[in-house]
Design goal:
The structure holds two protein chains of two kinds. By secondary structure, chain A is mainly alpha-helical. Chain A has 18 helices and two strands. In chain A, α5 crosses α6, α12 packs across α13 and α14 crosses α17. Chain B has seven helices and twelve strands. In chain B, the strands form two sheets. A five-stranded mixed β-barrel of chain B has the order 1-2-3-5-4. In chain B, strands 7-8-9-11-10 form a five-stranded mixed barrel. Classes of the chains: A mainly alpha, B alpha+beta. Chains A and B meet through α8, α12, α13, α15 and α16 of A and α1 and β1 of B.
Chain lengths: 462, 280
Amino acid sequence: MNDNLPEARPGLVQRLWRSVQRDPLSPESDRDRMRLVMNNLILHLHPSKVAARTLRFNYTFGLGGLLALLAVIQVVTGVLLMFAYTPSPDSAYQSMLALQTEVPFGQLIRNLHHWSANLMIVAIVLHLLRVFFTGGFASPRQFNWVLGIILLLLVVGANFTGYLLPWDQLAYWAVTVGSSLIGYIPLAGDAITRLLLGGPEVGAATLTNFYGLHVAVIPLTLFAVMSFHLWRVRKDTLTVPRRADEPGDVPVEKVTTIPHLVSRELIFALVMLALIIAWAVVFNAPLEEAANPDHSPNPAKAAWYFMGLQELLLHFHPTFGAIIIPGLALLGLAALPYLEPDMEAQGIWFRSIQGRWIAGISIVIGVLSAALFVGLDEVLLDLPALLPFLPTVISNGWVPLAGILLFLLAYYEGLYRLGATACEARLAIFTLLLAAFFTFTIIGIFFRGEGMALVMPWSVIP
Amino acid sequence: MLKKLVIGALSVTIVGAVGSALVYQSMPAIGLAASEGQVAAEAMPATSAALPTATPEPAPESDMGDPWTMTGTISALDDFGLTLVGPDGISVYVELGPPAFWQSQGVALTIGETVTVNGYASEGMYHAATVTTIGGQQMTVRNEYGQPLWSGGIENGAGQNGATNTVHTGTPQPQAQVDEWITFSGTITAMARNMMTVQTDTGETLNIQMGKPSFAASQGITFAVGDAVTVVGFWEGTNFNAGDITQMSTGLRLMLRDPNGRPLWAGPGNGNGNGAARAN
């Protein structure tokens, strides 16, 4: 009899909840799970089903998700910091001191903001490497690769503008050194530097400019591009990992995003959040004495992620070290997916078994050749002195660059003739240059002491 | 085809550079000077004995050091020089000479300003010849041979701390004969009015001559026993004369002599003796 009764009308609370969340949060069938993904603002960034293999942690290492988590931490801690920070040379440093001593949890919030920002640079570079080494940028994902590079630049920009805000010696001189690189852009360098700094030198106007860029312009752009990037990930589909000897057209098992992907993401986010908080509790963000424009530290180093560039500047004419070489590197990076017509190794780490060997050898050659280059240039090879009749832009710019390009061409051709495919040879060049750049960065951070002289690391770290 | 063109262009660059460097390095000294565009030097006979009496010989380059150029931001400024921070983070102190001379040229240097300095580097000391501001103003404190203009320069042989009204008949003699600039670090063990005693890091004890006490005092750097210092100087007989002394704890540097060993307290010269012709 009861079966013939009309269904009871839901109560007000239930109706309110349904107006917000239409689908049940504990779906019981695959159909309900897929609908929940599609109808949810956050979850609909995922496809409703994913290839089971893409869930392997050792394929993606969760780097994309980690970056999203870090972006959220940046926003939350950044907004909190804004309540305690005044962007003026007279007050900025005092704000930092107040954060450390007066504001409840101020130090922890600043630590979280600082370390997660640094981790963001590490994670975005690792994410880029993961995508490159698994061929994840191949068609139809070329443009998303370019978006990823734009995001990398925005993250670096956010870090750089934030670096100045504590207004301590480290911040002031790192930004002075970093911004002076821009001055080497031909024709427009000085104008851009003045625009960015709000004058000829780092000062009150610079702090205002950097603050505006850091809290509004860059984050808004970053979230807009990030949304576009995530949307493209969804539309371009995910690469599926496979073994080197496995054909690309094998049918793959698919599973629903809920619970398989979402639960992994949630656990990973919680673990990472716990680790970041633990790190922030133990390690304080650096704060030196208040900025003193009259007295530079020796050496005045740029932020750590620019140390590779600063090291380049010690060996090349600034036009090449600061503009041409980084410009070519960025251009090459953006053009990579468009140069891979033979790209059939999507989802295979390092393209093939042979590719893994080639990558390993290239790392060794990259590290050794960079260290050798630094040593030679420091001790033996004084090109401007050997070629004093040439402008230094030629003798210390074009000549060494030509030597390096010849070396890279010879390496590429050599590998090709030894049986490497074109995409393996390109992977080798990329890996070699990457290893060399990391070596420059390590040398710059740990092996440069007073007057940027080469010293042992224990002489650099006080 | 494009690849061959690129490889060709790169190879020509490397072969050309290596070849030119080898040829250049094997050229005799007079040829080197000519190729550097030192027209005046080209016209000079090879030995000073054959020089016309009115043409002084430029100071040997080894006294001045190697030609050096740097563009950077002025991070500090004092009466005798400026601290320049390059885009690569290197910070150097550049000596400008006596304040009366360079300040009289009407080029206002300011902290934070970007300038290009041409000059000479020797034993960790940097000496300006010209300083060019971003606005194009140029201050010249040494001539093309590195000779200080405040000493009258080599063209007229004047200055040199009071070489007045004499007929200049040859190379002006610097007040001090610098054979070799020496740099060492150590700790001050005693202080006197115009001298300090330093125990070097290698265990030797040296008396450092600091010259005119009022000049050293005017730079406002207070040294004390126990201070760690780095001294650049030269032997003159049994005396060790300091060119500059850096107090390691503060980074402050006391400037005492120019690269020729000439005392900075000697002033602009111009034949008026002992710096009496100061502009201010």
